[in-house]
Design brief:
171 residues; single chain
């Protein structure tokens, strides 16, 4: 059952707020128009990913540098960095290469790093999982050699060989 606005009693209430003041609870149910007119109500619209990126860009030192000197345009789509800052969208895949120096600090800040460490789909990820396993084994091998644990190192070497053979078969 839809609730009508408490103020105008005509439109459907879309803003619902509970105020607790001095242990007294008051509920407000207002339509968009009445809520905007009411003092003390701040209506927030959901942010898009573009808005979030744009806010990062506006706070970045690299964006200040970009404003001061002319940054080239993408050779494929023609977008420039300032257009990207405004919209939060790149024009094409080649923009990543064209604006690499400006994008890397942003990507690092947003994602917390520059390497993918998330999940990999089972269908497409078997090669990636094998490669990650080989990298991990090589790191273990290096540590075993540093600690002069040669028998352990020999076992790890054999595991690496098996994993590399498995990787060769899947290619």
């Amino acid at each position: 059952m839809k609730m009508l606005c408490q103020d105008c009693k005509k439109s459907i209430a879309v803003v619902h707020m509970t105020e607790i003041l001095n242990n007294k609870t008051t509920e407000f149910h207002l339509c968009q128009e009445c809520a905007q007119k009411k003092e003390g109500f701040a209506i927030f619209s959901p942010l898009s990913i573009n808005d979030i990126l744009a806010s990062f860009l506006n706070n970045e030192k690299s964006s200040q540098v970009a404003e001061k000197k002319e940054i080239g345009k993408c050779g494929t789509c023609g977008i420039d960095y300032n257009e990207f800052k405004k919209s939060g969208r790149l024009g094409c895949g080649d923009c990543y290469k064209s604006f690499r120096n400006q994008l890397m600090p942003l990507i690092k800040k947003v994602q917390g790093g520059m390497t993918h460490s998330g999940k990999v789909s089972k269908r497409a990820g078997s090669d990636i999982r094998v490669q990650k396993r080989i990298e991990l084994l090589k790191t273990k091998l290096k540590k075993a050699i540093e600690h002069e644990a040669y028998e352990e190192a020999a076992g790890i070497r054999d595991e690496i060989r098996k994993a590399e053979q498995q990787a060769g078969k899947s290619l």
